[in-house]
Amino acid sequence: MGREDARTPPLRPGDYEPADYAAIVVRGAREAGVSPLLVMTVLHNEAYKPHHPLLERLWQWWKPGASFGLANMHRATFERVRRTHGLPGRWQDLRDDPAFAVRTAALHLKDLDRSLPGRHVRRYTRDELLALGYNTGERNMRAFARGVPPGPMARSYLRRFRAHRERAAKALADGGEPRETVTARHRDGARRPHRPAG
Q1: Which of 23, 68, 103, 124 is the residue whose CA sits 20 to 30 A from 88?
Q2: Per-run averaged pLDDT (10 residues), the chain, 198 residues
Q3: Which residue ranges does the record annotate as region Disordered (predicted)?
């Protein structure tokens, strides 16, 4: 997967849509051996800030410990994944290369899955625990799997993960097709979406 495989996220924060990256989510998840739905739902959860490279650079200037890429990965996590899987590139590449960011996130979820016990409390699905691990770290994920209650931030992340599940599934069902971006006004005055030719 190279940089040519995914367009740069839009500069306008409101224009960013994780569904536009469905094709690279499917490829990255398959390569890592994890569920594309899990990866796509995590991307929806991590869509709370703009992901254009320029905006991420400004974000890091303001907040040096910021996370990068479509999946908001922190440097320490990236370095662990890079060493484990022999990835090329640097942490800063996550902000400039959406396909690399998705691939790295999928590999991190794979690593979390390997460390999750086979048996866990029934109140969470395996994917929910992996998402909590993505957000709070492996040690906390394992604690939640044993029944330790998550704190307020983790509970909020889990609520959003559950709420985004259906949107993520729809994005994958659409197969990574481009969103309808041009609106045409028909003779009856109704605005209807129109797909660009090509």
Answers
A1: 23
A2: 65 83 96 97 91 77 80 94 95 92 97 94 96 97 96 97 97 66 32 36
A3: 168-198
